[in-house]
Amino acid sequence: MTGIQLIAAERERLIGKWKTDDDQVNGELLECAIQVADNVWNDDDVAVAPFPPTGWPYDRANRIIGKYKDDHISRLVIAGALIAGEIDRLLRIKERA
Length: 97
Known about the structure:
By secondary structure, the protein is mainly alpha-helical. The protein has helices at 3-18, 28-38, 56-67, 72-96. Helix 1 crosses helix 4 (72-96). The model has no long low-confidence stretch (mean pLDDT 82).
């Protein structure tokens, strides 16, 4: 599979799990994606941020990082799917306007 195919499959998995991204109105999907992707080349096992966010994005990022610590591809795929979710959410808002 290609990178885009892996991201699309992960996005579909997330849709099946969460049903909607519309309740993530404060950038949570993007923040989680950034934390997961930013940490790929860092030796630490926790998300890195000067002022880490509280709540689910930070907790979720740490769980993803912990589960896929040495699997950079999986972490980038998950980050890509989360970014796609944020794009989809913003497109739905734009369509309703």
